[in-house]
Amino acid sequence: MAVALPLKPPHGLDTEGFESAQKVVKFVVVNKPEEQDHSRKEEVTSFEEAMLPHLDAAHNLARWLLRNEQDAQDVVQEAYLRAFRSFGGFHGGNGRAWLLTIVRNTSYTLLKKNRSADFTTFDEEIHASSDESVSPATTLEHTEDAELIKEAINELPAEFREILVLRHQQGLSYKEIAEIAQIPPGTVMSRLARARLKLKEYLATRMSK
Amino acid sequence: MSCEEAIKLMDGYLDGELDPMTNQTIEQHLRECAECDQAYKAQAALIRSIGTATPYYRAPAGLRERIQSSLREEFAERPMQSASPDMPSQLQRKQSEPRAVFWETQWNWLALAAAIVLAAIIAFNFVPRLQRPGADQLLATQLIAGHVRSLMANHLTDVASSDQHTVKPWLDTKLDFAPRVVDLSQQGFPLIGGRLDYLDNRPVAALIYQRRKHFINLFVWPAESNAAKATKTISRQGYQLLHWVDSDFNYWAVSDVNADDLQTFRQGFEEQTHPQPTNR
Predict the structure, then answer these.
(1) What is the rounded distance in angstroms from the CA atom of residue B25 to the CA atom of residue B6?
(2) Which residues are CB-contacts of A76 (< 8 A; sequence separation ≥ 6)?
(3) Mutation test of the interface with chain B: which of A168, A172, A188, A192, choosing the one with the most B Cβ atoms within 10 A?
(4) Which site among A85, A97, B64, B266 is 20 to 30 Å from B174 CA-CA?
């Protein structure tokens, strides 16, 4: 006979290790123990269906942040595992932004761990005034040079690389960027403007050499 | 708009993240200022190039499989099946990690409960208020703003005439309804003209009357058939608002005249529009 049971071990086993099973209290109709296994597989499947379509976006962000293919792949894999573990806490909404937030945080953890020289919090106050040094006309000539732009972005601090990638490659709105980069929505425009200005300055420096 | 402001907002403008009003102000400035226009073109070119010239690193083929198999591994490591001899040691090993998940889960349930309570509070308190006086308060704010703006921006009338037969046809052509326009000079409220305004999410007619040196904006738009017929008075920020409804229209009179004058105005208006008043 079919009985409705919460998804828990069938016997009076010590429940110490089963917290994760309580994450989502699902009631399933249990006939045989193998069917529990089956519904756990469904959990993985529904996670994959929701999150794997964003794999390219996740990889691209990690790749630009870490500037290294191997690190990027490791971070994306780790981020997917983290996402899976807290998938129960994700109640629909913008899945891409949710996943990218985890990818971003995981990337930063690695950057910090490696004590990457570029990982310095960029002081917007100090750098704000170095304006006007780049004339629009001179940069205009070189904005077509893809290789140069790529190089320039890689020279920028992580938080500038991040915002440029989120905006220009993922095409995200300011609101989504604010969510992923964990900054106030009002800061997105000024940070983007500074990132672009830094890029221009870099291009100008390269040209004068 | 100054050049400094225009440059500051340029990125938001190019990214299409500003409101339409600000967009227009910037476009206006760009038409007038060659220097900013050049800066705009350069920035637009840069933004285009960043998007098109930089590589998008798609995930390599192997990564998807790697992730899928690590997910299956993770899933398999979670203790699932009933007693097996080596289970205790496995539990011991995994203890620290599931703990974290557990607390996270607890928190999520709490957050969910809090959200439900909050939603209930909003549903029970906020929504009824919004439907009744809150909606009036919002409208009152808009009405006062409309009145103040009309006096402030030297834009009191679109059609300036004391002749109701000039004002009415002008309004009729601009709106999808035909408001009643009457001259109340004899009652001491000469007609000054008419204007279009936008209130309560729709275009409305504004009739302007004068009382000595004060102006009265009478906002008119079609009434909904089930609208409450009661008159309302609101006094805010030194302005008097008087609302009434007749068979076809909503009326809101806004002015800095005193409340009695506004009532006299309304009586005069109703007598002229409905020659045989029923409420006498």
Answers:
(1) 9
(2) A55, A58, A59, A62, A103, B59, B63, B67
(3) A168
(4) B266
Instruction: Write out pLDDT tens, residues B94-113.
Output: 333 333 444 444 556 677 77
- Between B61-77 and A55-66, two packed helices, what is the crossing angle to 10 degrees? 100
Check if the beta carbon of residue B91 is closer than 8 Å to that of residue B79: yes
CB contact under 8 A, B82 and A13: yes
Token pair in block for residue B104: 């996270």
Q: Which of B171, B207, B206, B214 is nearest to B191 (CA)?
A: B207
CB–CB of B56/B24 below 8 Å? no
- Across the interface, whether the CB atoms of B54 and A173 are under 8 A apart is answered no
The residues, any chain, with a CB within 8 Å of residue B134's CB and separated by 6 or more, are none
Under 8 Å CB pairs connecting chains A and B tally to: 170
Q: Which residues, in sequence order, are bridge partners of residue B194? A: B159, B207
How far apart are alpha carbons B160 and B191 in whole angstroms? 9
Residue range A69-100, pLDDT digits in tens: 999 999 999 999 999 988 877 777 788 999 99
pLDDT level of residue A203 (50, 70, 90 thresholds): confident
Q: CB burial class (10 A; 0-12, 13-18, 19+) of residue B120?
A: exposed
pLDDT winner (highest mean) among A158-162, B78-82, B209-213: A158-162
ipTM: 0.71
What is residue B254's three-state secondary structure? strand
CA dihedral B57, B60, B61, B63 (to 10 degrees): -120
